[in-house]
């Protein structure tokens, strides 16, 4: 099975179970960010989800992990296990981000439901993310780029599927996504492109 493939709408799918997927995801992420560096001063990782359901905690776990080691002044993390960004505070959080940071570029990260044979895949694409779409929640679209982890399959009783998602699936993808983001930042550093905070 290949590490990644491209869907009809240009979204990239990375198989988190394959060796090298985190590196390939990191390179793809840095490539998409570099397309916008001429106007970016601040990069925000907006990690969406709740810590109250296993299938919905992918975002907060990633935010928790990233907040432990990303210290560059122009990178910011919102949505952690301690302070999750979810349906009730998403709109206010996004408004606060735009008010607090100049020339901001948001990478929205969330869990998602998909086909049963895509469980464990990580998606990456340009454009906004529609949080809660898989469980019929009407939330605002957010982000300039999006990353999702397919934690379970969609079908009847989607809320129940999020409650019964295996924690191992979530943790494994969280590790891969954090590693990919680390690769991405290192790659941008090597190209001397992370000095965007000094514009």
Architecture, according to CATH?
3-Layer(aba) Sandwich
Average pLDDT, to the nearest integer? 86
Please describe the biggest sheet, giving its number of strands, its sense, and whether it closes into a barrel: 7 strands, mixed
**Strand line-up across the major sheet:** 1-2-6-7-5-3-4
Number of domains: 1
Q: What is the global morphology?
A: globular
- Give the number of helices: 5
Approximate helicity band: 25-40%
Report the CATH superfamily: HybD-like
Strand content: 15-25%
Structural features, described:
The chain is an alpha/beta fold. It has one domain: HybD-like (Rossmann fold), CATH 3.40.50.1450. The protein is built from 5 helices and 7 strands. The protein has a 7-stranded mixed sheet with strand order 1-2-6-7-5-3-4, with helices on both faces. Helix 2 runs parallel beside helix 5. The protein is globular. The C terminus is likely disordered.
Layout of helices and strands:
Layout: E1 4-6, E2 12-15, H1 21-34, E3 42-47, H2 58-69, E4 75-78, H3 90-100, E5 104-114, E6 121-126, E7 145-153, H4 158-163, H5 167-190
Parallel strand pairs: 3-4, 3-5, 5-7
Antiparallel strand pairs: 1-2, 2-6, 6-7
Helix pairs in contact: 1-5, 2-5
Output the keywords.
Rossmann fold, 199 residues, seven-stranded mixed beta sheet, alpha/beta
At a glance:
The protein has 199 residues and is of the alpha/beta class.
């Amino acid at each position: 099975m290949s590490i990644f493939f491209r869907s009809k709408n240009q979204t990239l799918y990375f198989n988190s179970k394959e060796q090298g997927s985190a590196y390939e995801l990191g390179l793809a992420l840095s490539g998409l960010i570099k397309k916008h560096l001429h106007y970016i001063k601040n990069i925000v990782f907006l990690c969406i989800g709740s810590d109250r359901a296993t299938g919905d905690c992918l975002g907060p776990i990633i935010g928790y992990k990233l907040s432990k080691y990303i210290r560059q002044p122009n990178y910011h993390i919102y949505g952690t296990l301690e302070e999750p960004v979810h349906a009730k505070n998403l709109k206010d959080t996004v408004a606060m981000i735009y008010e607090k940071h100049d020339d901001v570029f948001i990478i929205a990260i969330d869990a998602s439901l998909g086909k049963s044979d895509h469980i464990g895949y990580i998606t990456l694409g340009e454009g906004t993310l529609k949080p809660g779409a898989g469980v019929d929640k009407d939330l605002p679209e957010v982000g300039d780029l999006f990353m999702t982890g397919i934690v379970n399959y969609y079908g009847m009783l989607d809320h129940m599927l999020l409650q019964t998602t295996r924690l191992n699936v979530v943790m494994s993808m969280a590790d891969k996504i954090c590693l990919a983001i680390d690769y991405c930042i290192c790659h941008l550093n090597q190209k001397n492109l992370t000095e965007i905070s000094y514009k």
